[in-house]
Amino acid sequence: MHGTVTSGYRAGLFDGEAGLNWLRPGWRGLRLYARKARHAIEQGDVAHKADMILRADKLLTLMTGILNTGHGATLGPALVNIYTALRENLLRANLNDDADALRDFESALSVLDRDMAHIFESALAA
User: What is the pTM of this model?
Assistant: First the structure.
């Protein structure tokens, strides 16, 4: 998409320009799916694990697609890299029934959420 069209599309999705506050619900949803997938692995429920990992992957795809990665953008490209690493953890968890990969996934999102909230609050205070 052309930069102006993409920016307008993104603004339409979020009823205005997107800010850091729109990322947090997605990150929390990802953490929920990871927790449920981890519990499914621990219970031996392969179908539920696969469903939760698929949901997390779809949410990551959606969240990646709405990032501003155009010229001069800094947050979008950084998050694309982070989301790629998170997706690799999902793949490892799915292929190997690796609960530790999901713990790492949850932990990374928790740190991201906490650090970005701090940055967001600091920017508002300034």
Answer: 0.80
